[in-house]
Structure formats: C-alpha cells, structure tokens
Design a protein that fits this description.
Two copies of one chain form a homodimer. The first copy, chain A, is of the alpha/beta class. Helix content of chain A is 35%, strand content 18%. Chain A has helices at residues 3-9, 38-51, 66-78, 98-104, 179-183, 198-212, 217-235, 245-267, 306-312, 338-349; strands at residues 15-17, 60-65, 87-91, 111-116, 126-131, 151-155, 174-178, 190-195, 270-271, 278-280, 285-287, 293-298, 318-319, 329-333. In chain A, the strands form three sheets. A seven-stranded mixed sheet of chain A has the order 2-8-7-6-5-3-4. In chain A, strands 9-12-14-13 form a four-stranded antiparallel sheet, with helices on one face. In chain A, helix 4 (98-104) links the parallel strand 3 and strand 4. The two termini of chain A are 27 Å apart. In chain A, 52% of the residues are buried. At the A-B interface, helix 1, strand 1, helix 3, helix 4 and helix 6 of A face helix 1, strand 1, helix 3, helix 4 and helix 6 of B. Chains A, B: GO terms for molecular function: carbon-sulfur lyase activity; transaminase activity. Chains A, B: Its cofactor is pyridoxal 5'-phosphate.
C-alpha cells in the first residue's frame, strides 16, 4: 500500500550494486555482529532518533532476515542448551498467530509454546512475547506476567507514526523492528533488534550465524537507502511536502479506517476496537490510532464462525482461533493494495 | 578471489532496484515456493543446463538464505514431527564442520547429529549428508551408507567447473547449490535446492516460511543477474574472451594450487591430496581438480597439533578435529583475496 510513495520519490530510493561489490560474507569484521552493514545500522539508529520510538543509547543492534528470524534468535538467546526442561514461551491472547508455530515447529528441547500469558501459572522459567502495538488488535501493551524472573521480548514492528501516536521512546531489553512494517518493503526481508545485554546480543548473532551465516548484504544496502530517504524527508531543509513518509502513510491509513468504520457501522453486525486519541511527540499533536490490521468481532448471534461467514462473500480473513481466542473474531489486513482494499470495502458494504 | 572478474565485466552485472519494486512478500503466488523469484529460478536452471552439473528435468527448485538454510530445511523435511526418536544425521569424515552444529544447535527432537557415516551402526532411521566435491578435502563422493531405507542430501556447493571436472550431470533426490561458491557472491546469501519429491520440496519451503518468511527478493534479483552474465559469457556469440567466468576461475585456482604444491613440496613436512586428471564434459578436455580448500596433512612427527603449529607463524587454519578427524590435519581456504593468499604462500615458504 505504500508503493505510491516510493514511486513518487523516484530515483532517490533506487539502489545500485555493481557485480564486484558486497561479495564477502563479512560486513564489519570487528563487530561481533560481523554480518551487519554499518550503513544499515547507522540509518536505522538515525530513524529511531528522528521518530523517537525507541531508546538507542547503549544498545547492540543485530540484523536479521526479517523480524521472524530475530524472534527465533531471541528465543534461542534467552534459553539454555543445558536446561533439563524447555523454557515456556507465552504471549497474551489475542497473540500473533506465528508465535506458537515459531516456538514449536522445530520441536526444540530449549523452548516450547505454553499459550496465553494471562492464563500462565508456571514457574519462573518463561519468555513472554509482548507485541506492541499488538498484532492482531492494535492495542498498546505491557508485559502481563509481572514475575521479575521471567524474560521478555518486545515485538515493536508496528510502533511507527503511521500506525499509532509516538507516546515515548520504548525502553525494553530486546526490541524487534522490521523494514516490512516500517516502510512496506516486506520482500527485502530485513529486521533488526535493539538489545541491552551484550551476551544476549552475542547469542542472537550466533543463532543467525548458525541458521543462515548472516543476512543478505544487498537487502541491507537497499534497506539503508530506503530508511535514509525517509529520514532525509524529515531532516533535510529543502525537501518537497510530499516526501514525508509517515505523514503519507498516516493519511492513507486514516482514509481506510474511516471507510472501514463506516461500512462496519452500516452493517450493524460487527464491531471494531476503539482507540483514544493521544498526543504524538513525533507529530507534535494529538493523533488517532490506525492499526495495520482490523480486529473484527461478530455481534450477530446467528454467525458461529466469522471466518467461514466471510469466506462465503469472498473476503479472506484469519480466524480468531489462530490468535488464541474464539471464532467470533477475525483479523483483516489494512495494508493490502488499494484495489484489493476497495473490493473488500465493497463486499463488506454489500452486507447491509 | 573472483572479484577481478566482476570488475572486468563492469555494468552488465550491476543490479538496479527502484524503491517501489519488489516490495511484496510474494514472488510467485501460484508456486508452492511462493517466495521464489521466477527470473532467479530460470537463470539457475539455464546455468545448470549449460554447465551440465545437475539433472534439472522434473525437479522442484527451492531458494534459501544460502545453502545453510537449505540444509536445515532438508533435515526438517526428511524428519517427522511425529517420530518418537530423532533421526540420526551422519556424514563421512572428514565432514564439513558445520553439519554437526546445524543438526544439534537447536536441540531439536526431530533430528540429531550421529557423527561419521563410515562408523554408523544404527538402524534405518538416518539422513546422510553427502558433500561432493567434499568440503574439506575436495574428494568426489558417493553416499557410504548403502542402506536403502536411509535418506540422503547431496551438498553440491563445489560441483562447478572452476573446481573440478564435470563428469556427468548429478542426479540425486536433493541437491544443494549456492551462489557463494558458484560465483563468489557470499554476501548475497542465496542458495537453491533441486528436489525430486514434491512433498519433500513442499516441506522445505514450509521450513523457510516458518524460519524467515521467504528469502530476500533483492538478493534473488541480483543473483539472477550474476548467473545471467556467466551464462551469457558461454552462450552469446559476440562476447569477449575474458568473459568466460569458469575459465577465469579455473585459471586463478590452477595458479594458486601450483604455487601451494610447490611450497608444500619444498617444506617436506606436509602432504596434500592428489587428484587424477579427468575428462570434463563442459570444457571438453581432460582437466585437473582444484578444490576450494587445501586439506593439509602433517608428515612431521614432531608436530602434534597442526593448527597450533600454523598459528605460531600467523597462518589461520581450521583443525581436522572440527571435521571429525585428528589434529594432524588442517583446512586452508584457497578462495581468499590475492593479497592474503600471497602472504600465506610466503609464510609457508619461510618454513623451508
């Protein structure tokens, strides 16, 4: 959905890599994250400072193949190869549907999925995945397990100004971000982690070394360029009005949410989460929340399974069951292409 | 070491990606390997046909973040989540040092490292990793476990004409290749698998989806360009003599191996594997073998640990112990930059 912005900025976001460049495995041999391109790290840190969404001082930055690889890396780094029992991985429902698969699919003896954090009654041995703003429902979240002995990974993929007001710079032990949600470049497969503890960061880097021997340099170079164009749009004095990416994204999402809320209200059969307007320190004004997903709840008692219901009118959704709750919920992407979103609104509206 | 070639070919190998292209997760939504860029697949298959190193008919092609991710994917695909016991992963010593770590580092309940295939006395439940030409020693290999019930993964990273004669197109169930060893572009992190069985291919794709939600499009586009330049060098009628990549690489390696063999012979303390000259169907002449690694054996009884010995004269090697054999062996890269290789030869020669 952000493609029109990138068409508009034109050549300044184009990456050019000659055949003889970026051939080696190594990007920065002296860094323990030796596969991290310094120009990518610099642009990511610069953008955090401009946006004010994360504390970057005294953090280690680890690049990964999307934030998905970094979730694997974080679970690995926070677990022990020596432990007799795998550590429990939890997240408050509704939770991102991939968390459970990521924790379980390799049948690792180091960690295992243990479900909804709110229902967790286990011992001190847990890792809570905290997604904020939350996928699927857009809520701003804190960890729900207060137990000091547990460990936490904060998935901040959607903590960018197009989606939600920037309340304060997030300040957690492990924070994950991804180019995919920040700029729309999912195919580039670049995520990054800001990590407080040096030993945890080293183990995350080790995981990526064992898993894929580092991360595409080409994509890191491209991501650096993309992040730079966004940062320049806010920092350079002579840029055009149309080159402010977060303003562009926010405007697009505001329009989509307005249309969705109208269609939902007209149907009278579903409800959406409500978000209070809050002060955004980046925009320097009160701002609404426009999550990347619509988390739809069915209010019509005659519909048992909302995903199945929507399938009958050719709307593809993901059932609440995949997120640890009931079939009265579905998640719908708000980030699809314009044409697809238009069709979706048309079909929802046909339900009136 | 192949950098000079890529400098010579100039702009034809340069990749250019505008900011608005290749943004989506999806490359080929109708393919079960939906993250595979068709242009990359086409160029990889085209190069196999030109070189004659692998049977490509009726194979599924899966792209991965280097061949490392594809080894993980293959172990996952050949194991069962339902099995009571993890499947044994074996490889004949000396074996690539990463195989054992890849099999064990996640403590998976699906598979586990079981060591040297030649010493394996287990049941039918095994996966043999066959590296041919072998890393570290350059030997052409067949599976050593004849048991029909076992499964095999053929790591063919070095089966390219710069390293070894092309005897015949390899024809195995799962064959792994990587741009890193084929063209020198390690930083691009692109590997691919040719897979006979559709279900195995589907499970490998599933692994990559769960592990990293696909593979960098930017790197696939770049790899396609790089492979195309090599293929064009052999297929287009009007290319210059200097644009034949495999001839260039072979010439470079021949020169290095000549210098290394002279220095080793002069020292009188070490030996190197010998390889018979064989007919190469690609070059259409008898050709020597020039492995990407030198596998050095110590013949001097006064040296107990060859890696430690070389460290004293500032030559970094990897000990035979990491490859499942004794400290009288070390592996030395033949693919380093010219300047580093020169220093290495100088230091070896100083031992006379």
């Amino acid at each position: 959905m952000f493609e029109p912005f990138w068409k508009e900025v034109g050549n300044s976001a184009t990456v050019v890599i000659p055949g003889w460049q970026k051939m080696s495995y190594f990007s920065d041999p002296k860094n323990f994250c030796w596969f991290l391109e310094p120009e990518f790290a610099n642009e990511a840190l610069r953008l955090h400072r401009i946006v004010g969404n994360a504390v970057t001082d005294d953090r280690h930055i680890i690049v990964g193949v999307g934030s998905t690889q970094l979730i694997h890396a974080a679970l690995f780094a926070l677990s022990s190869t020596e432990a007799r029992q795998p550590v429990n991985v939890i997240s408050a429902a509704p939770y991102y549907s991939m968390y459970s698969s990521i924790a379980d699919f390799m049948k690792s003896g180091m960690f295992r999925w243990a479900g909804d954090a709110a229902a967790f009654n286990g011992d001190d041995n847990f890792i809570e995945l905290v997604c904020s703003p939350n996928n699927p429902d857009g809520e701003i979240r804190e960890a729900v397990c207060g137990n000091e002995a547990g460990k936490r990974v904060h998935d901040m993929a959607y903590y960018w100004p197009q989606y939600t007001p920037m309340r304060r710079p997030a300040d957690h032990d492990i924070m994950l971000f991804t180019v995919s949600k920040a700029t729309g470049h999912a195919g580039t497969r670049i995520g990054w982690a800001l990590v407080k503890d040096a030993e945890v960061a080293r183990k995350m880097g080790k995981f990526i070394e064992m898993n894929t021997i580092g991360v595409s340099k080409d994509s890191q170079v491209r991501a650096a360029k993309i992040l730079k164009v966004i940062a320049d749009g806010y920092e350079l004095p002579d840029v055009e009005a149309g080159s402010k990416f977060f303003h562009f994204g926010r405007c697009l999402l505001a329009n989509r949410w307005k249309r969705l809320r109208q269609a939902i209200e007209a149907s009278g059969r579903f409800s959406l989460p409500q978000f209070p307007s809050e002060f955004c320190k980046f925009l320097e004004e009160h701002a609404e929340t426009y999550p990347g997903f619509a988390w739809l709840r069915c209010e019509d008692q005659s519909i048992v399974d909302l995903e199945v219901f929507f399938k009958t009118i050719n709307i593809l959704t993901r059932s609440g069951r995949q997120f640890g709750v009931g079939p009265e919920y579905v998640r719908i992407s708000m980030l699809d292409r314009d044409a697809n979103f238009d069709v979706f609104i048309k079909r929802i509206s046909s339900l009136e």
